[in-house]
Amino acid sequence: MKCGVSPIIGFRFSLYPMAANFVEVIKGALEQTDTSNVWMHTDDVSTVIRGKQVHVFNVAKAICLHAAKTGEHIAMSGTFSAGCPGDTAGDVYLEKGDEVANIDTTKQYVSSQFALYPMNNPDYMDVIYQEVDRAKERGVFNESMHYASGIHGDIHDVFAFYEESFTHARSEQHKHLVMTVSMSINSPSHGGR
Ligand SMILES: Cc1ncc(C[n+]2csc(CCO)c2C)c(N)n1
Question: InterPro entries per the record (predicted)?
């Protein structure tokens, strides 16, 4: 099967608020975010957003920020994907302009881990090392670990890094890229950061 050539990307994720009112926190974060630039669907396990890269990352960050504002400890886990075979439906969202819908500059510390899977790219380890170097240059690298890399800092720096990394880890020749991310926000382990 051929990989898609559509510039559409997707993010499937779940929020796990460590709070008794988790339903309110999840639904509140999804509802308070302007999702007009992406296709979105929520089910009992996760939510998927699809569209232009700039909007997918903007909406993902805004949802995390809204959940974080509750002050509750939030875990988020998700997968970004580009060039997936079959990723051509929902292309109407590609006609959206590049102006982002959610602007919120609230500072928020996040600790996270990510992993890149450059599909069908024989030089995938070079790609991964290059992106880890990028994290160090951007000042968001936290630590090396098995099967992932630790990325932390202000949510705006962390998301800017993820978006940049997602752009550079794929190419015309190797369009299909998967990136997994898990985040921890307002964790007692962060000592009030
Ligand atoms: C982003 C995101 N989307 C969906 C779920 C799944 N989910 C778990 S509880 C709940 C609310 C009650 O229906 C939903 C939709 C999730 N955890 N995070």
Answer: HMP/thiamine-bd, MTH1187/YkoF-like, Thiamin/HMP-bd_put_YkoF
